[in-house]
UniProtKB/TrEMBL annotation:
Top-rank lineage group of the source organism: Eukaryota
Assigned keywords, A-Z: Transferase
Molecular functions per Gene Ontology: acyltransferase activity, acyl groups converted into alkyl on transfer
The keyword DNA repair belongs to this UniProt entry's keyword annotation: no
InterPro entries xref list: Citrate_synth-like_lrg_a-sub (IPR016142), Citrate_synth-like_sm_a-sub (IPR016143), Citrate_synthase (IPR002020), Citrate_synthase_AS (IPR019810), Citrate_synthase_euk (IPR010109), Citrate_synthase_sf (IPR036969)
GO term, biological process aspect, one: citrate metabolic process
Protein family: Belongs to the citrate synthase family.
Keyword Phosphoprotein among UniProt keywords: no
Gene3D superfamilies documented for this protein: Citrate Synthase, domain 1 (1.10.580.10), Cytochrome P450-Terp, domain 2 (1.10.230.10)
Species whose genome carries this gene: Edaphochlamys debaryana
Protein name, per record: Citrate synthase
Active site residues per record: H303, H349, D404
Entry's Gene Ontology cellular component terms: mitochondrial matrix
Amino acid sequence: MLAQAVANLGLGALGAQTFAAASCGAMRHFTTASELKRKLTELIPGQQERLKALKKTNGSKSLGEVTVDQAIGGMRGIPGMLWETSLLDPEEGIRFRGLSIPELQEKLPGAVPGGQPIPEGLLWLLLTGEIPTAEQARSVTEELRARSHLPYHVFKTLEALPQDAHPMTQLTVGVMALQPGSRFAAAYARGTHKSRYWESVYEDSMDLIAKLPQLAASIYRRTYRAGQYIPPSHDLDWAANLAHMMGYEDPGCHEMMRMYQTIHSDHEGGNVSAHATHLVGSALSDPYLSYAAGMNGLAGPLHGLANQEVLRWVKELTAKLGPNPDKDAVRKYVQDTLASGKVVPGYGHAVLRKTDPRYTAQRAFAQQYMPDYPLFKLTSHLYEVVPEVLGKTGKIKNPWPNVDAHSGVLLQYYGINEENYYTVLFGVSRALGVLSQNIWSRALGLPIERPKSMTMESLEKRFAAAPEAAK
Ligand SMILES: CC(C)(COP(=O)(O)OP(=O)(O)OC[C@H]1O[C@@H](n2cnc3c(N)ncnc32)[C@H](O)[C@@H]1OP(=O)(O)O)[C@@H](O)C(=O)NCCC(=O)NCCS
């Protein structure tokens, strides 16, 4: 039955061949001297010199003190990592290589005139720090298309899972099924010189980014559409192809997917999925292992899974209060959520202190494409009430909405109703940021991560012995 479904995908012969090869531990590989890789080869020596000079001139300077509260409190605010692809300002939000989301929307090439940027252009920007021309962005689309083949054994691996396994579990398992094809792991085993690690990490990262849309769409189709897979289009860009393989052809949905995949890609290095990828990559685990670690973090409800939780919470709200609840009823509902010891999903942030610009970008999209959609209206209504209630608690540092408060509305509008799947779409996007940084981490020769931990006893003794010095 699976063989038939994969044959329907148009990969029959190819799939069977690849399956045979994969059974012997081998995978078909697209090897490239792509425009993007050539560009990186040019840029890397200069950045290596820059890092050397930074260390020489400023290596011994202090970045500030660390309090006991910070050590206990999830290391918030402790600067302790190099992350080149993006930087988060608490007030202003994220900047990708120095560009805000509106600037990305203005400057990056799109698929339609005046439309949303294509994520391939963002990938070029994240990797090179430069805004690509339309041709350069197209070269990335082509490179990814050439690498996109998903081996048959990946379908077989997914089929071994219960159909109702959480889509994020299926994503990680699918990624791990691709890991035997890691070119970095093979290069390391061959004894490749460390100055060349980045090259095979690049190959793995691009292979993985290329295969993720079909992997993600296959998870969607097997879980919610009885395994009726849809073959990739050879004309569509990376994000639109993902929507197409999931079964969505509305041009508005394709534009939404381009925006969604662009804005979820990167949020500097300290968030759970980025940091987990970075940490595991620092042990020279290959990009498949590192990204899978990040995805297991993204699957947590305080992080990426919050987008699923938002929908669940909103559905419960409408079931209880009806589709158009008044402000007092919503206020009471939020208060009840807090009183029951739960968080209000989609609100708050560990770093941001204002409305997330990723929320604002999605709101602007909704205003353009679905101004009268009732769920959008309800989301706007929540925006007017929730921050006020959270703010009154006095303890929540940021009562404003984050990215997850809005993404589900856009997906629901186009008919993607299965909220348990939403974090997979977030995860596909996140690959662009965390794998770009991972390539740079190897190119810059960043070392294995090893922060210091402490016991309560060691802290107590330290400050009991020298209370004054502790201030
Ligand atoms: C994102 C989040 C984990 C950040 O946590 P944080 O850095 O600890 O946030 P704060 O410093 O403001 O937390 C202080 C207190 O307010 C609570 N708080 C923060 N956001 C809250 C929310 N949306 N609803 C209820 N309580 C919240 C915290 O749980 C914490 O309570 P505690 O002292 O009893 O443990 C948190 O805001 C949250 O859980 N939000 C909801 C989940 C979500 O949307 N996640 C996606 C983030 S992009």
